[in-house]
UniProtKB/TrEMBL annotation:
GO MF annotations, alphabetized: oligopeptide transmembrane transporter activity
InterPro entries: Oligpept_transpt, OPT
Similarity comment: Belongs to the oligopeptide OPT transporter family.
Keywords attached to this entry: Membrane, Peptide transport, Protein transport, Transmembrane, Transmembrane helix, Transport
Mode of membrane association: Multi-pass membrane protein
Pfam families documented for this protein: OPT
Record flagged with keyword Membrane: yes
Official protein name in the record: OPT family small oligopeptide transporter
Lineage start: Eukaryota, Fungi, Dikarya, Ascomycota, Saccharomycotina
This protein's record includes keyword rRNA-binding: no
Species in which this protein is naturally found: Lipomyces starkeyi NRRL Y-11557
Coiled coil, from the record: none
Length: 326
């Protein structure tokens, strides 16, 4: 009688018999992408040198803040260069992670490696064209785009954060930021490096109690919350806790069979629901006032981002006064 382990082993052997993706195919994609990147940086008037691409291509993960700081030191006062380097740096990170995740899921679904590779390349090309078309359409047809009072809620929270980062790390620059305005945060790099040693000792001392504690995941997870408020992530936290902790402990067989399929279903459902809600309600100007639409404005971080814990000083702004900038 065939057991579950025999069935899994047989399925893995069937997938492994499929032809793998040749390494030269990945090399071709890398070279092609790098050439297009060089052409974009050279042709677009961003005052960015091609050498900047070598900076971001040298990292494999966690490139966001590092790319911003390094590009800010290399090109001080240039917000466009910082934005381009951040885009390429994040693209290397997110694309590599998505590539591996897709192949892992394809292995579970018994999809041949070459088939998933072809779909990834085709999907990337289509996605680039669709994204450019949608962005151009939005900028030409959506009134008051990215404004805090935009009626269809196109407030561009991530884009506004991206713009703020270009001002902070590009126009102002890390040299002025760390040397004059805020000298203490630069020591956080040293603190983060030194914290690795006591944390390693604690995990060696208490392996069972701390086996699921990963400081990188904790810090990275906290950083993903900005610039959104709690309403964007609280529901996902409840769902993750239920499936990744409760159900995984009590119903492991069901979890192994349906958890990731359910994840894909929920993700697809959100995408389809967003399209239906937008074209049927928001685009037509319908205004539905109920708890689910209004609760996000109740906290200090709601209300179009105009709340503050502290009152505005009498001079009307925070920070150094004009003429006293570093």
């Amino acid at each position: 009688m065939e057991t579950d382990q025999d069935s899994i082993r047989s399925s893995s052997e069937q997938v492994n018999k499929k032809l793998p993706v040749q390494e030269r195919a990945a090399d071709f994609v890398f070279v092609g992408g790098f050439v297009l990147s060089v052409a974009a940086v050279t042709a677009y008037p961003s005052q960015t040198k091609v050498q900047g691409l070598l900076i971001v291509f040298g990292y494999s993960f966690g490139t966001g803040a590092l790319t911003e700081i390094i590009s800010g030191y290399i090109w001080p006062g240039n917000g466009s260069s910082m934005m381009l380097m951040r885009i390429y740096g994040n693209a290397m990170d997110s694309t590599a992670s998505a590539y591996i995740s897709n192949h892992k899921l394809a292995h579970y679904a018994k999809i041949p490696p070459r088939a998933i590779f072809r779909v990834q390349i085709l999907g990337t090309l289509v996605q680039c064209l669709v994204t450019i078309g949608v962005l151009n359409w939005q900028m030409s047809n959506v009134h008051d785009l990215c404004s805090p009072t935009q009626p269809q809620k196109f407030k561009c929270a991530s884009e506004r954060s991206f713009y703020a980062a270009s001002i902070t790390w590009g126009v102002i620059g890390p040299r002025r930021m760390f040397d004059d305005m805020y000298p203490i945060p630069k020591y956080c790099f040293l603190i983060g490096f030194l914290l690795a040693f006591p944390l390693h000792i604690l995990k060696r001392t208490f392996p069972r109690q701390l086996r699921y504690v990963n400081p990188m995941l904790i810090v990275g997870g906290m950083s993903n919350w900005a610039p959104y408020n709690l309403s964007y992530y609280t529901a996902g936290f409840y769902v993750s806790f239920a499936f990744m902790f409760v159900i995984r402990r009590r119903y492991l067989a069901w979890w192994e069979k349906y958890n990731y399929i359910l994840h894909s279903g929920l993700t697809s459902g959100v995408a389809f629901a967003a399209l239906i809600i937008f074209f049927s309600l928001q685009y037509t100007g319908a205004n539905l006032s109920w708890w689910g639409n209004n609760i996000w404005q109740s906290g200090i971080d709601g209300g179009d981002g105009r709340q503050a814990l502290l009152p505005v000083p009498r001079m009307g702004f925070f920070g150094p006064s004009p003429g006293h900038y570093p």
